[in-house]
Amino acid sequence: MADVAPAQTGANPQSPVPLDSIPISPEGALNGTVAVKSEKPAHSETDLVTVFHNPDNFNVKHPLMNHWTLWFTKPPSGKGDNWNDLLKEVITFETVEEFWGIYNNITLTSELALKSDYHLFKKGVRPEWEDPQNKHGGKWSYSFKEKKSIPIDSLWLHVMLAAIGETLEDDGDGEVMGVVVNVRKAFFRIGLWTRTVGKSVPGGGDGNNAGGKGRTTEQGKDVLMKIGKRFKEAIGLGDTEQVEFSGHMDAAHAGSTRAKAKFTI
User: Fold this and answer.
1) Number of domains in the chain
2) DSSP state of 110
3) DSSP 8-class letter at 76
4) Cα pseudo-dihedral 37, 38, 42, 48, rounded to 10
């Protein structure tokens, strides 16, 4: 499990929700339950008070369209480590308030050890190529090589917000599986995993076109390119910088995470 750090005051100044921290529980444990302070609220018990009205005393939470699970890959201790043993499920959440409570109580990406990863995936999807919902898919990714000058914490936060806010794809696309950030010696890499590589997959998926069902290859490619453009915007890249899309199967066959790119934007 990811190391728990003290609440990061002001860690999300550009976020749409004006919160510096959300209490998780009296002990600060990551149990997925948002605890409201015990002092008497300055409102009637029948009033609906959101976190936007009062960040300390609220009785309404904002549900997300999907449930999301945060995963953490800890650095290997030796060459014999199994990657599956390094991958740890941290917590699942379903509201805006729970997201901020978790984010403000875990270690920032910039402070993680080398070879660590954070993965934020829809509930029920493991951040592995072999997962049935991933094996026919791929990912958009970009590596930031000037590590000292990259605001990786802000970029990763923006990508997570775009994912849980469902702004990376349109309703019914059913492509976005999750997002990931990798901490390496020479770079930070942020990726966005999709269900397909632009063509229908066996069994299709949820929704009319999810999983490529009912789409032509050209339509599938158009959907992925649209998602890629939104991903590129989320990580703040300019026109001269390119994000690459590669398939998980291609990467598995190549024996590397750096398979030949199918598309670039």
Assistant:
1) 1
2) G
3) P
4) 70
